[in-house]
Design a protein that fits this description.
With 811 residues, the chain is α+β, with helices and mostly antiparallel strands. The chain is built from 28 helices and 17 strands. Helix 1 runs parallel beside helix 22.
Length: 811
């Protein structure tokens, strides 16, 4: 016998179907128009995703990335997606995910949040229209649409409603299953490890406290849920401890400087931006990028503002603005029971985003843990959009049940004048860029929409009529958000701009084919050439990851600090102007370039036109324009070398001084923190001498120690003590065959970093830090087999990471 669905169940299914329809219509704006989410989404995150998938299918682990800055601890990098389950699961089945697949996974996180918001509204008795409107705002509103390219933020943000729904359900029903589910989702959010996930975690704590305090007996309720909190805590710590430890370890070894308050305040949200909450295009934010925009940002307020139109965008639908300003603020319904805390969250988020324009953010920066780690208070707009989604659901629900709010005439007049003043300020600001008329035209275009929406709400008197009006306004708003915020110039570019990351053709295909052919021509064994790609534009910045080229540079704000200081590859090699050449890497023919095995450079211009390169040598031209130049450098050193002459010095002193040690012949420099098993020829046991500027002087054959150390100096052998070649290589494991006439030091020209271990003939040996940047190990005379393996999850490395977090000194 068939049982008809209950009315509430049918309403819920209809609500979720409508939310899915809105999401699908938005997603189709990209798919049908052959668009992709651009910029960081493809230049950075997509490349990491391709590395993740490709490495897994090649039988390795994605923990160490050799195609990024000569070697990069991906497991510790929040942008690597290793700890994002949807990406990891997809990577298990697809070795080469497409651009569309990547965008689909990212956008699906917003659908998860939208559906969870729909269930939340159903649990709280909202009409279907209110739930759908809230979900549409959450998925497509304001900065969510503007910053769709910031994948880590979007994926964390998208899961918040599910986390809150599970937390609420676990507390109400005493459900351990929901408690575990909440802990898992909360950990995934937190592992975004950026400012927005941190703020989202703060909001979850606030909402949990509110939920407890709203009970008739808060203390008894909290005590009765104590086992749930214990389960949540244990689950969270078990899942989150290791990734956070590894990230903290990376931060300690990275290039990232401390963020000062003045730098952070540059990314404050200038208050005139509130005008685009009411009028979406008042600053040209959603018109074609080639036409330009004129809103607050680094272009219109140089030296004062580090934001842009994507950061500042807040339009979440005309109906949303009307409900918030009329029903919420003027009508006082924002402060009604059941949404006061969320209204406080919205106010707090707005104040946070304003940054320098209130005294609150500077105080938070100085006193609240975690805030000073991030530089953009404007990121608080994500929390504002989140709060607006929930609040708008409440407001529309109130309208359907209770009708229009009573607004005192004085409040109405003041509110109208405030809106007019804000729009007038926006027009005046636009006049500074000669765009006052454009701003007024944008206002004129939306004015009829607001008039129509006001009339719709005023004319609907009866409950059924109000429900119909709410439904109609929700359908309109969903369509408005899909048409204006999805697939717009804020978050979309033609797929062809990035297509070479899937199937290279034309110029890009020729470059890839040439490099691939050249790499295959190289002899195997000790040689593994590296490449540097500079100036070819954004999509090329991390293309080496996609095609398996071991690059000396890449696109990432986080890099191993010592490498970044000495090599200076820069954060964004899309332009040659970002490539600097410090004293330690003065040219492509310097000692450090050769030690890295840098053999190919790819430029957008002839090498003699590189802006910061003062000298270059005669090199072989592989491709001679007109859009790209490929050069082959001579004298690149092998990836593995044997040295019988050892000099000991403080590696960190060289890094601090920005110097690379000058060694010759079969010499190697070993860090003075490392223990050697014997005394080698030309060994030095004291730090290097200082030059007149106080910098450490590299100890070379021409700068021998004198006095008591002179007896330790032996003639420098002119030939290596043996031979070494790589017999097996993958990102996280390098196996080397060695034949040596005497005990020597083997150097692997790959970055030294915690978590790497080395074995010689199956026996664990100390990992040496050689020539400041590289990994090394002592090998005995005769034949031996050396294996370097990256084991970041070993107890030894995790303990070292924990000691670093706790500030314990190594014994």
């Amino acid at each position: 016998m068939r049982t008809a669905l209950s009315r509430p169940a049918a309403t819920l299914i209809l609500t979720l179907a409508a939310i899915t329809l809105v999401w699908t219509a938005a997603w189709m704006q990209w798919w049908l128009n052959d668009l992709v989410v651009p910029w960081d989404s493809k230049n950075q995150f997509y490349a990491f995703f391709r590395f993740l998938a490709g490495t897994i299918h090649d039988g390795g682990t994605p923990f160490w990335n050799p195609y990024h800055y000569a070697g990069h601890p991906s497991i510790a990098d929040p942008q690597s997606l290793i700890f994002s389950p949807p990406f990891l699961v997809w990577a298990l089945f697809d070795p080469s995910p497409s651009l569309f697949a990547f965008d689909f996974i990212v956008f699906a996180h917003l659908l998860v949040g939208g559906l969870a918001l729909g269930v939340y509204g159903h649990r709280h008795g909202w009409p279907a229209a209110a739930s759908v409107l809230a979900a549409a705002i959450f998925m497509l509103g304001g900065v969510v649409a503007g910053r769709m390219n910031h994948v880590g933020i979007i994926t964390s943000f998208g899961l918040f409603p599910l986390a809150w729904l599970l937390l609420e359900a676990s507390l109400d029903r005493r459900s351990f299953l929901a408690a575990i589910g909440f802990a898992v989702i909360a950990v995934i959010i937190a592992l975004g490890r950026t400012q927005t996930p941190l703020l989202l975690c703060f909001v979850l704590v606030v909402l949990a406290a509110r939920h407890i305090l709203n009970q008739p007996s808060p203390a008894r309720f909290a005590l009765s849920r104590l086992p749930l909190f214990i389960v949540m805590g244990l689950t969270g710590v078990a899942l989150m401890a290791v990734p956070l430890l590894l990230t903290a370890q990376f931060a300690a070894f990275s290039n990232r400087p401390a963020i000062d308050l003045q730098n952070a305040l540059l990314s404050s949200w200038y208050p005139v931006n509130a005008a685009n909450f009411i009028v979406p295009n008042i600053f040209g934010s959603i018109q074609q990028a080639v036409l330009g925009d004129w809103g607050p940002g680094h272009g219109t307020r140089p030296g004062l503002d580090g934001t842009d139109r994507a950061f500042n965008y807040l339009f979440a639908g005309s109906f949303t603005a009307l409900l918030v300003l009329w029903h919420g603020l003027a009508g006082g319904r924002l402060w009604a029971s059941g949404r006061r805390v969320m209204a406080a969250v919205a106010v707090g988020a707005l104040v946070y985003a304003l940054g320098r324009y209130t005294p609150i953010f500077p105080w938070l920066f100085e006193h609240v843990p975690g805030i000073s780690q991030f530089r953009r208070p404007v990121g608080g707009l994500f929390i504002l959009v989140l709060a607006l989604a929930y609040l708008t659901g409440h407001l529309l629900s109130d309208y359907v049940r209770k009708g229009l709010p009573r607004v005192p005439p004085v409040v109405l007049a003041v509110g109208t004048l405030a809106v007019a003043g804000l729009l007038g300020w926006a027009v005046h600001f636009s006049a500074g860029s000669g765009k006052a008329v454009d701003a007024m035209i944008a206002i004129a275009k939306v004015a009829p929409i607001y008039v129509g929406l006001i009339a719709l709400l005023l004319l609907a008197r009866a409950p059924r009529a109000r429900l119909a009006a709410a439904t109609l306004a929700t359908v309109f708003t969903a369509g408005e958000l899909v048409l204006l915020n999805a697939g717009s110039s804020l978050n979309a570019e033609p797929r062809t701009n990035y297509a070479f990351l899937e199937r290279p053709s034309g110029r890009d295909g020729s470059i890839i084919a040439t490099l691939t052919r050249e790499m295959k021509r190289q002899p195997h064994g000790a040689v593994r050439p590296r490449v540097e790609i500079v100036g070819l534009g954004g999509p090329w910045q991390n293309a080496a990851m996609v095609y398996g080229f071991e690059a000396t540079n890449g696109y990432n704000p986080l890099r191993i600090g010592s490498y970044d200081r000495l090599v200076a590859p820069g954060e964004s090699p899309y332009t040659v102007f970002h490539r600097r050449f410090p004293a330690s890497f003065s040219s492509y023919s310097c000692d450090l370039s050769r030690a890295l095995g840098l053999e190919y450079i790819v430029l957008d211009r002839p090498i003699e036109l590189m802006p910061h390169l003062r000298q270059w040598q005669t090199i072989e031209t592989i491709m001679d324009g007109p859009q790209a130049w490929i050069y082959r450098l001579p004298q690149a050193e092998p990836r593995v070398v044997l040295s019988g002459v050892v000099r000991v010095a403080d590696a960190d002193a060289f890094v601090d001084a920005g110097r690379f040690p000058s060694v010759s012949g079969s010499e190697v420099m070993v860090d003075d923190d490392d223990d050697l098993s014997q005394t080698y020829a030309a060994s030095q046991t004291s730090p290097p001498a200082a030059d007149t500027a106080g910098n450490p002087r590299p100890v070379t054959a021409q700068a021998r120690p004198t006095g008591p150390l002179a007896a330790l100096v032996a003639p420098v052998p002119t030939r290596p003590p043996g031979r070494a070649e790589i017999v097996s290589w993958r990102p996280d494991r390098v196996e080397v065959s060695v034949e040596s006439r005497l005990t020597a030091v083997l150097t692997l020209h790959e970055p030294w970093y915690p978590g790497w271990q080395v074995e010689v003939d199956g026996v664990r040996k100390p990992l040496l830090r050689t020539d400041v940047l590289f990994r090394g190990v002592e090998v005995p005379a005769g034949a031996s087999r050396v294996v370097f393996t990256y084991r970041p999850l070993s107890l030894e490395n995790l303990k070292a990471a924990l000691d670093g977090v706790l500030g314990r000194e190594e014994e």
